[in-house]
Amino acid sequence: MTGTFITFEGPDGAGKTSVLQALIPRLKAQSQVALNLTREPGGAKISEKIRDVILDPANTEMDARTEALLYAASRRQHLVEVIKPALAQGDIVICDRFVDSSVAYQGGGRQIGTQAVLQMNQFATAGLEPDLTIYLDVPVQVGLDRIAAHQHERQYDRLDQESLAFHERVHSAYMKLVADNPMRIVTVDATQPLGSVVTAAEAAITKRFPSLFG
User: Is 17 annotated as a binding-site member?
Assistant: First the structure.
């Protein structure tokens, strides 16, 4: 792999979508190579169909391990179809969520074990890890308040049915990932105004990969 793989992570309400919408044009204007934005779950035809099943609010009976396996399956197809080909030709790939999300949400939030979920995803990805992860951090209640304030502007999904305790477990799992991966994960305070968050994320990326931007 000769390309550069960057992921964005964060709990619900961290503002990843808004940050990426503002950030990607700025990065593309500086990038010396092709830059691709994609997302998980989804990003490829089959992966998007799996996403629909996972997030369908009617699927309340879905088992936690079934959910984790579906995320891993969606990720594998996305990796094979989209991420690996782009990296193979030297592109930059920026992905909205990756394995860290499964570790935090299914391993921590669903309480099926972070190591078990990590191992499952190592099989799915054949060990591929991001070169850099930007983690947008907000306190749990702040994130949930943001979601409530903008509930009419986004699609309601199964995760919106979860309790405060679930989201607190997700946040704790993310904090553990940050502590365990200090070289890969850069934390950005997402309680700042949007412009400040975008600027901080841009600085973290361009500083890490100076030969790719400028």
Answer: yes
| This prediction's pTM | 0.95
Please report which residue ranges of the chain form alpha helices under DSSP H: 16-30, 45-55, 64-78, 84-88, 99-102, 114-125, 140-149, 164-180, 194-208
Pair of tokens at residue 38? 């994609």
The owner of tokens 């396996």 is: 69
Which residues have a Cβ under 8 Å from the Cβ of 17 and sit 6 or more positions away? 96
Q: Give me the residue spans of the domains in the chain.
A: 4-208
Run of H or E residues at 214: none
45 annotated binding-site participant: no
**Angle, CA 65 vertex, CA 14 and CA 165 arms, to 5°:** 45
Residue 15 annotated as part of some ligand binding site = yes
Average pLDDT over residues 91-103: 98
Architecture of domain 4-208: 3-Layer(aba) Sandwich (3.40)
Half-sphere exposure for 212 (CA within 13 Å, toward CB): 22
126 annotated binding-site participant: no
User: Is 214 marked as binding a ligand?
Assistant: no
Query: Tokens at residue 40, please?
Result: 């998980």
117-135 pLDDT per residue, tens:
999 999 999 999 999 999 9
Q: Has 127 been labeled as part of a binding site? A: no
